[in-house]
Amino acid sequence: MIIGSVNENKDLEKRISITPDIAKKYISNGFEVLIQNNFGEHLGISDEEFKRQGCKIESRDIVLKTSDIILQLNLPEEKDTNLLKEDN
Known about the structure:
This protein has 88 residues and is an alpha/beta fold.
């Protein structure tokens, strides 16, 4: 099962839904964690920190298309809803 998260509108939301520590917990419970490149950069958290915990870094489109669960603090942007993975 893949948990993913993408950057939110930083004018409205500075927080992120997955930190490296949270990602480590998800991964230890058998989930794969996929985040958008530069996900935590505005908070001083590099992609390398996420990778060290076992996260995979991808483009926004790939994260939205392949994740089974999307974690965000706000609702997804309308332009992204057509990219969400459909239930098979």
